[in-house]
Amino acid sequence: MTSDIAAILGIDGIATGAVYALVAIGTVLIFTVTRVIFIPFGDIAAFTALTLAALDAKRFPGTGALVVVLACLATLIEVISLVRSGDIRLLPRALLFYLAIPLAVVGIAWLAMRIDPPLAVRLLLALMLITPIAPLLDRIVFRPIADGTVLLLLTVSVALHFALVGLGLLFFGPEGVRTEPLTSFSTEFAGVLISGQTMLIVIAALVFSGLLYLFFDFTLVGKSLRATAVNRTGSRLMGIRPARAGTIAYLLGSLMAGVSGILIAPVNTVFYDSGFLIGLKAFVGAIVGGMTSYPGAAIGAVGVGILESFASFQSSALKDVIVFSLLIPILIWRSLASLHSEEEIEE
Amino acid sequence: MTRLHVQLAAAAALACLALAPVVLSPFSITLMNYIGIYSLVAIGLALLTGVGGIVSFGQAAFVGIAAYATAWVSALNGQSPWLGLLFGVVLTCSVAAILGVVTLRLQGHFLSLSTVAWGLAIGFLFGNVDGLGRFNGISSIPPIRLGSFALVSSGQIYYLIWGIVALVLLLGYNLLDSRLGRAMRALRGGNTLVESLGINAFRIKLVTFVIAAFLASLSGWLYSHMSRFISPGPFDASMGIEYLMMTMVGGAGSLLGGVVGAAIVTLLKNSVQDYLPLIAKGASGQLEIVAFSALFILFLQWARQGIVPTIARYLPKIRRERPKPAPPLPRRPQPTPGELLLKVDGAERRFGGLVAVNNVSFEVRSGEILAVIGPNGAGKSTMFNCLTGALRVSKGDIVFAGRTITRDPQSRIAKAGVARTFQHVKLRPRMSLLENVMLGTHSRTSSGLFAGAFRLNRREEASARHEALMQLERVGLGDKPFELAGNLPLGNQRILEIARALAADPALLVLDEPAAGLRRQEKLRLAELLRSLRADHLTILIVEHDMEFVMSLVDRIVVLDFGSKLCEGAPSAIRSDERVQEAYLGGVA
After folding, report:
1. What is the pLDDT of residues B248-303, one digit of tens each?
2. Hey, are the CB atoms on A148 and B429 less than 8 Å from each other?
3. Cα separation of B329 and B465, whole Å?
4. ipTM exceeding 0.90?
5. Closest chain B C-alpha to A133 CA, distance in angstroms
6. Cα–Cα distance for residue pair B49/B56, rounded to 1 Å
7. How far is it between the farthest Cα atoms of chain B?
């Protein structure tokens, strides 16, 4: 391997890794606030790419129908639980959040499609359509078992991923998509060609992690999210609603996943089931950060990207074998590095 | 319900299984074969996940290793499938042992995540190795032969599959009811509990892990020779998750749950394939997985326990006989009263810059009750943890019965004759009082895996059971030995922990804040019990907070304050010591 090839592989790896990093940060965010290891983030990213491709092709994306179905389901569950507990006065709010807003988003997207919107608007529409999915899934799937063990939540999360893959095939079809690059700009640095898309990916990853940092350190909502992560009961006593904190975490997380989906779509062909590997590799990155640290997760995810890039140069067939085999030493290192309090498994 | 009823039910189930091929259609028999094959993996997973608390997403990889191994031996090299079985089992168990040695020390969800990792890595490998047919798989695998008789049709291999399943269930239940099985069932209580009983937790985890992999390898062998063709698909990550679903649906702690779960998941998948096209035309493939996952999520939301435990709650309890007298277990040589038993010499423990225990020395003599007391933050618990091996001292020495135990792991200290209880009671709530106390006899008994599975351990079991009952009677809990430990009030749970410690035949009993959270009557009962134990020449070390409880009970007191020893002496002397009063009540200004 010459140094040129190494440089190209390195840059390629950083770009892939930056995409994983966005998803990894979302994964850590959800895990710390809700204890759910949200495997389907990769699917959210893939769905965003598919949504954007559909918009580009002047078709109304299947995401719209998916949001409508989920919104109706979530509203139904919310209304039933409110009626059961006698909190009728909270009904209008529930209808607004779980039904009106998601439907309005779909409606706006549908109307906007009539006027053949420019790329920037299409990007915005794709993100708008994708963000309600995770919070709605949270309401339908995870809220009823919010007090369950991490393991139960993980198992449900994995099952949910499979459901989403099925829905993805149903709503988007089996064809892979590759969207047009967001920019055709490219530059040469130290003799290596760097595309504008690569730079965009890295910049987006930096900007979004920076914004997240500001959000957590300088806003009350961000602080309440951190408080929920540290101690649910304690923050509840301080007037923070864990369910609301969870919803915000899911919104933010899916926004990050959505951005990563948009960024990866011009580089890789995305299929309805591409999300699993994106999600898992992001997850590997998140584990490197111990599932609690955002910079750690980002660094870990970039590491995975570089590793994958070099591994696929050595043996493209075995690249996933290499990536996941290397997870084991990382896990051992993490497990030794983190001081665990003795935890009994609930029965 | 008695044991006989259970045996009759099992015999009836076996008869139904034996008659099934006569009654059912060939298609149903094929379905039954799949259920049987999946059951084996799910039973292993029930043992690993439900009993041992180790969640594995990677069992499908083990099934795959054995399936590919036997296909390689029989289809590609023309050898007998039985040689394939041997090769598959040895290979799978070796891989599992290596993976286990590497990963089983991981904590909590790190361990489960590592199973995702190797499950995926091994799964990807099948499709990418040239010699194994890549994604085309291996075809024309020969059928299993019994002598000259080939098991070709589904009705023929049916008996082999279900015979193995029945045998595995029988041996599995025997194992769970044995010394090793009880140790496995204790794993969920956490490492500290298991190690405090003189059990090497890592070893037990490794054994459980390899057993689960062994069952998966049997399944892989049967699969390979039943379907006669293998490709990477059935051994990928999603199948690993499906096995976990089967186990959870059936009820994770129950071996029978593995079979029930495998049956339900398989039948459900099959009927989803059948009925979905009727509801939504043309969309069957996509909706199948959606419907299946949705049903699974709903199931987990509404019945987390799983089916078998949920049903078992409504069945009449099995009536058991009180254990009969049996030859006693061997006792360890007890120290002569008054002899030096434990010597702590200049113990120091630092946590970074904080010195939690600073140059503490004291001695415990055989036959006395010594209390270590001190206000909050005095270093009592740290001292306690150093004594029992949960923590290592940074400096100094601890000598027990003439042997330095400073660097010993918990389980070895426990084996040497130091039995402990916990401040936050650590019992196995779903095991009976008798079984909880039998856990204490672990280090006094010796039967292993095969003795347990084939019931070659009856004499030792009878002795252990009788010993446990004796200890329950000694502490006053002998009237309901088959009650579940979780149903006891806290006071009695504390006392049950003491019975468990006594069953280890300890030379030194170490109690961690035994009076914490007890009501007055319960404290009085506890004090009385401890006095009666002293009358039996047992040495007791109490780490306690409650002055009143300690003063009327113990022979000598060691007072700690800010990590250092303040003073030592008889209760009356301690009570009038000004330094102690100052430490507890603040200085008299």
Report:
1. 888 878 899 999 999 988 888 887 777 766 665 555 566 777 877 888 888 888 87
2. no
3. 10
4. no
5. 16
6. 7
7. 98
